[in-house]
Each structure stands twice: as C-alpha cells, then as structure tokens.
Amino acid sequence: MENFSALPDFVILDLETTGTTPLHDRITEIALIRFENGVETDRWETLVNPGISIPPFISHLTGITNEMVKDAPTFEEIAHKLYSCIEGSVLAAHNVRFDHGFLKSEFKRLGAVLRQKVMCTVKLSRKLYPQHRGHGLDAIMCRHGLTTHARHRAMGDVELVVAYLELAKRELGETRVVEAIASLLKGPSLPAGLDAAFLDEIPDSPGVYLFYGENDLPLYIGKSVALRSRVMSHFSSDHASSKDMRIGQQVSRVEWVETAGELGALLLESRLIKERRPAYNRRLRSPGKLFSLSLAGGLNQVPLVNIVTGDDIHPELFEYLFGLFRSKRAAIEALRGMAADNRLCPRVIGIESGKGTCFAHQLKRCDGVCAGKEPAEIHYLRLKQALVPHRLKRWPYPGRIGIREYCEATSGSQLHVFDSWCHVGTVEDESELEDVLKTRSSLSFDPDTYQLLQKSLRRNMAIIHLETSKDRAAMDGGGRKTLLPV
C-alpha cells in the first residue's frame, strides 16, 4: 500500500461478533491495520469478552469459543486503545455498515458517539470489477487466487482485504484504484443552511423523512428501510434526476419518523403525502375520483360493461368490480385492451357507439356477436373470463385484523390495524389498540392502501384477528385480551 500516498489516512478493520444484530449481539474480536500516507503505521488485534455466550454455530464458523474470550478484556477496557487507532482516519471494511454499526453501538453503551468517515470495500470491488457478480471475500479469494489460513478471524480477513487492494493495484493500475476509492469517499454536497451534524443523528432504520425549504410546507416526503443512507443519497454528487438536484439544493431542514418496518413506512408515507401535498411528490397524492368497471348482471343489457365511480366503489361491492383507475380514460383504455386481446365486441361492451356490426368485426378482430355470428351467451362468458383477473378482492376476514412489525435495531414494535382494505391506525401499545378498536366511524377507501395490503398479505405476514366473536365478547364484557404481542 506504500504507493497510495494520495489517499487520506485510513484503517482497514474487521470484527468478529456473537451474531448479526448490534442491539443484542457483541464483539468478540477486533483487528485493524492503519495506513498513513499510504504506509502501514500500526496494526492491532485483540479478543474481546462479549459478556454473553457465543452461539455454537458462531464458534464453529470463527473458531472463537467462550473459553478463549473468558479472560479477554471487555470492550470498555479496550475502547480507548481502539479509538486512538482509528481517530482521524477513514474506516474501511468489507461490508463496513456491519462493522461500523457494531462499533457505534458499543461506544453508545459507554455514553460516547462514534463519528467516523467510512468506506466499504465491497462497493469498491463492484467499482473495480463490475463484470463479476460476487464481491464477498470468499468470491474474491476464488476469483483472484488469494489464500488465507485464518478466514473468519479478524486479522486474517483484514490481511485478505489488504492483499486484495494490492492485487487490484497491480491488475488495474494505481490511478484507477485511487480514483475509485476517492469517488467512494466523496461526501454529500449539502445545501447552504443545512447543518451537516444532523446526518449523524438520523438512524439507519425504517421510517419516513420530510424535506423542508424556507417555510413549513414540505418539499418532499420519502420512505426507506435505511433512513440515513436514503437521506444522504439525495445529496450525492451524482443525482439520478434533475428533480433530485432541485430538491437537494432547496432543503434547509430535515425531519424523520421511525417505524418498525417497511409496511409502516409505506403507510405513513402515503398518508403524509396525501395530507401535506409536498411540491415534489406526484405519486401517492390524493387521486380525486376513482373509476372501476362493472359487469352487467345479464347478457341482454347494453352496454355489458359500465364505468362506475364514487360511492359505487366500495369494499362491500368489490366482488362485482374490476380494476381501479385514476381516470375514466384509463378505464376505457384498459377495457379496449381486453377487447382487442380477447376478440370481444367493442360495441356490445360499451366502448364504441352505433348499432349493428362493429368496425372491429369488419377488421376480423371481433368474433361477431354484433353480427349474429357468435351466441350472446358465449360472448358474455368470454367477457367474464377476460375480467376475472382484474376483479377487486373482497375483504377476506370477519372483522378487523392487525399486522405486526418488529424492528430488531430499535426493539420497536407496531401493530397496523385494517378493516375492509382501509388502514384504521397504527398502534404501539394496548391502550392505543383499545382506542382504535372502539373507533367505529366510516373509513375512507384508499387505492394505495389496498395495493400495499395485498402485497403484504401475499408475503404471508402474520395476521392477528382482532374481532373474532370471542374477541368481541371479551371486549363487550369489559375484559381485554392481549392482542398486541410483545
């Protein structure tokens, strides 16, 4: 690495841990090599007593046993030494989010805040060798013929990363490697008036963020399963669109709300966008009128398909409705596509005016129900078959349900309550759930919630039935069951 003098001081680090979750798991081994002006100036490694038992499968993977760490120092005892090694440097690691997350959690337990610029060598590998798919250490070893006698031990993996960087420099040239590293280290370009310190305060957990300009109306509302990373991406130098650039230039304040998972973030984002109508959000805004297709009850009715809106689009009627559309034109185009794909008569189904034989039949694109060449019963049956994939799904539960989400990083739990495809509310404890279940006001159907909930149900998320007859009896009797799991 001695020729990497153009780079800032950096430390290549690796941790071994008792598991994958910084909130619950602990560090068992630390190793690092520090480089200044491209020259190695320090290397250090130590086992760490995690204070908890190491699971057998982790010991099998790393070779680190409970007996080995029994007399090792605790993190608190080595924290000062570790900080002196990494202070003022860029912290580099293979999947640095993992290592950095554990270090931040350990320092936080000591009442300290770790603020460290980081670089991920997995991302560096993707930049240097985009033609390859795998960029984990095992894939790199296999691809480049690198070896180590201490895989899954901290110093063994650190030395493997160093060897990989040296190999990349020989294969690709020092200039290309240094440029790739520099591009990864390029920090966000923050607009004037936005305090950079806020970036360290934003958690990398699920939630919703709000960008504000000079007034109290939000410019943009977004969601992410990793808030901090997503917010920072808005201020990167390589904006994905001109809209991203305009947003990044105007932001003067950022707010965020953590959720327990992705569904909670999606629901909150959708609601806030409809309520606050931010300037740069188009999708998820209140759709105004909704349109759907309704099939006539008998084959002698004309037209066979009607476009309905307003009160006719209600969850109780969904088994008789087909598709949700933001405009009447979109509904007509969808029906026109079904007619073309299934050789249906556009005149009989209601998208072409006039009497007698339709124009599509003259072009041999209609099987001729309008000309008496196809029985009306057969045409009606084929129309029903074409509509079936678009049928709106009726509410499949006897009452309200809850979908629970749990965030390991924060230990936060939320229960999202739904009724008839409508989001009733999100609660975090029993008292809030009590209030939500007492609410009997009419719910407003929202197509975005309908789509979100259907996707969640297809992922087989755990459903809690909140209003079975047994539950209802318990509520009526003044008793309460524990419906919000802990």
Could you explain the architecture of this structure?
This protein is α+β, with helices and mostly antiparallel strands. It folds into four domains: 10-185, Ribonuclease H-like superfamily/Ribonuclease H (Nucleotidyltransferase, domain 5, 2-Layer Sandwich), CATH 3.30.420; 198-276, 3-Layer(aba) Sandwich (GIY-YIG endonuclease); 291-390, no CATH class; 401-476, no CATH class. It is 38% helix and 19% strand. It has helices at residues 56-62, 66-69, 75-86, 96-109, 121-128, 137-144, 154-172, 174-185, 198-201, 227-233, 242-250, 262-276, 328-342, 346-349, 359-362, 376-387, 430-438, 447-458, 469-476; strands spanning 10-17, 27-36, 39-47, 90-93, 118-120, 207-212, 218-224, 253-258, 291-295, 305-309, 321-325, 401-407, 412-419, 422-427, 463-465. Strands 3-2-1-4-5 form a five-stranded mixed beta sheet, with helices on both faces. A hairpin with a 2-residue loop joins strand 13 (412-419) and strand 14 (422-427). Helix 5 (121-128) crosses helix 8, helix 6 crosses helix 7 (154-172) and helix 12 (262-276) packs antiparallel against helix 18 (447-458). Residues 469-486 have low confidence and may be disordered.
